[in-house]
Each structure stands twice: as structure tokens, then as C-alpha cells.
Amino acid sequence: MEAIRPDDQIHCRAMWISDVHLGSTHSKAKQLLQLLDRVHCDRLYLVGDIVDLLAMRRRVHWPQAHNKVVRKLMKLSRRDVEVVYIPGNHDYAFRTLCNNELGNIKIRRNLVHETLTGQRMLVTHGDELDYAVRYSKLNRIIGDIAYDTLMRLNRWVDKSREWLGKPYWSLAKWVKKNSAKAEQAIDAYQLAAINMAKDKGYDGIICGHLHYPTIRQQDGVLYCNDGDWVENCSALIEDDAGNLRLIRGESHPESIKRMIFIDATDEFTKGMPVAAAYEPAVPTPTNHC
Ligand SMILES: [Mn+2]
Known about the structure:
Blueprint: E1 3-4, E2 10-17, H1 29-38, E3 39-46, H2 53-58, H3 64-78, E4 82-85, E5 101-102, E6 105-107, E7 111-114, E8 120-123, H4 137-163, H5 171-178, H6 180-199, E9 204-207, E10 214-218, E11 221-225, E12 234-238, E13 244-251, E14 259-263, H7 265-268, E15 269-270, H8 274-277
Parallel strand pairs: 2-3, 3-4, 4-6, 8-9, 9-11, 10-15
Antiparallel strand pairs: 1-14, 2-12, 5-6, 7-8, 10-11, 12-13, 13-14
């Protein structure tokens, strides 16, 4: 795993971010702004749950950093970046604008991205795969409330760690990793995604929704989940050589508010040697992605 230095400006062909949850207290908007300032891409995919309209029904939390993210995305779309927005279940109201534009941002229900090496990847938020986890509506509501409570607890942990000068640590992520039931649900979801992509004849699928960044190759299908900006501060990128990789933000060793972005592909790769998923790029001194 190679560190991307904080002063690096990185270029990639495409970047996928999702589950930013702007408008909710859990959003890590400031960290996302640091990513958007340093990682430049030709195409930016916003893979849903960018704004959390569901949370905003209960309570609106809209600090300046959240507004800055919106402004930054609009600005990128006016420059030379093709920005495509695929609304998710927390911002589903925007689905009514599918096949239209919001400023220069294209809104789509889902789409196909072709990598430099010719892989055809289906890009979708992924809430349509929830059935695989066999959640009843009641279960899902309980799940949502439990998640919200967990994230609230997480903020307390986060605040105390910040006070102690310790880097961010995700309680929610720890629970997911250490609960057999959560692991089963995540696996069922991933398999449903893989089967859907396979049935439709795609080489792979790129989604968000789970807040669980992963690259997994199975049955000849590549499953990529770009993670989130609530717990993981992660993004999926297609580097200039056409490889799909995951990057993750980490607190800077000198200042916990500053981020460094590291190549986290190995960390989040499941069930395969990394080389089997793609041809690894040869890192150059100036470009680590
Ligand atoms: Mn979602």
C-alpha cells in the first residue's frame, strides 16, 4: 500500500464517490473537499445518497462545508469534468430528473462505463439489491434507526479520539467486520450484484449504498463498491492505465484534520489475489493512482 502524499495532485480517468449524506450530521464533507481538491478526473460519477433528503426530513444540518461540496461539484461540471449523478434511495427525489441535467450535471438512473481496457461496468447506486439481504420493511426501518444510533455513538468516540489527538476510528465499521450476521448480509448483497451484472452481460458492476468499500472478482465478474463519506472516506478510481482501484482517506500524521489519501485496493480486496482482478499499474514517481 503506497501513500499518496498530501501535496500530490493526482489524475485519473474516472472517479466514483457515493453515500456522502450531505444534510446529515454524519457527513464527512470536509474530508471530501480535500479529495476533490487533489484528485482530478476526466469523469466523475456521483453514485447516489449524495444529499440525505431522508435525514433532512427529520433534521437539517447544512454547515458551510456541505454547501462547498455542492459548489465544488457544480464548478467541476462547468470546467472540463463530465459529472454524472445517479440518485440513490436517500436522494431518490432526484430520480424524477433522470435523463435531464442539473446545471451541467447529467442525471441518470444507471449507466454503463467502459474502462480503457474495454471492461463494460454497470454503474448503479445499489439499493435495488436490498432484496438479497431479505430485509422486511420493518427490519429496514429498525436497521436505519440502529445505524443512526451507532453513528451517533461513533461521533462521540470520534470526538474523544480527536481530543486525545488520535486518528479517526469507525465503530460502525468495526461492528460490520465483527458481526457474523452483518458479514452474511454483505456477502448475499455482493453475490446478488455479481449475478445481476452477469445476467445482463456486463463485465462488472460498480455501486455504493452498503458503506463497505470492496473490490471482488467472482464468476468472471468484477464487483466494485466505492464505499462512503460517512465512515470510510473512500472512492473508486480508474487510473490512467485503466485499472480500478480503491483509495481511502486517512488522518495526516501531523494534523488529524488534514487527510492523506492512500491506495487501499489491497486492504479492500476480497477472495482473490489482487493481480487476478486487474493488471496492477506500475507506479510512477508522480502518479500513484
Ligand atoms: Mn443508499
